[in-house]
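Meet today's protein:

…
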Amino acid sequence: MTSFKAGIICAVVIAGAGFALWRGHQAQLAGHEESQALRQQMDELIAENARLSNQVSVAAGPPAAADPQERELMRLRGEVGGLKRDLAEATRALAQAKAVPPPQTVAAPAPEQPDPFKQMGISKMNFAKGWVLAFMQYAQQHGGQLPPDFESAAQFAPDLVNADKNVTTAQFEITYKGALTEITNPQRIIVIREREAWQNPNGTWAKGYGFADGHSEIHIVSDGNFQPWEAQHMAGAEQTGQ
């Protein structure tokens, strides 16, 4: 290669490098200017935003104090509104009460009348039991011997035998006057019995009895004939096997 060609090549290389440097410098200048423009636009936006905020604050201003008369009027309006609501609730409750039918009055059941025949049976059982117990106390003080009559054991009779005037000793009779120790089955042996039977409304017949063990019963038969049953419960029936 000749010196002339080498010189031309060197000049071309130098010129290319210079042009590249110039283009880079121009691009750098353009980027700097663009960055400056953007920064200026941001500053302007920030300033405008601050200006608008100040205007809003000034326009709003501090809250104005309410006029006393206006406050009183608002309070009265609130009370009127509350009264209207109360009136509406009362009117609605009254309408509902009128819609509900009144409760029907249910007559109280009449008190059950005591059965006079049942009461009579209870009285006669208590009477017979009271006298049998009096007879047993008499026997304790007389060697086990039962009294010959009601008067002999009257001091041992409880008050209940005299409380009911509808039942008397005249209505009863003593059926055993021996010693209690001779009775082997006292719960079956009649000591006193009612003289006359009495009829129930259903047509049956009843009599009161007191037994040697101290209990009493009302025995009922349909035909009024107590003899067969009494025979099985008299002293001596134990030995005869009745």
Observations:
- Residues 116-240 form one domain.
- Residues 10-15 have pLDDT under 50 and may be disordered.
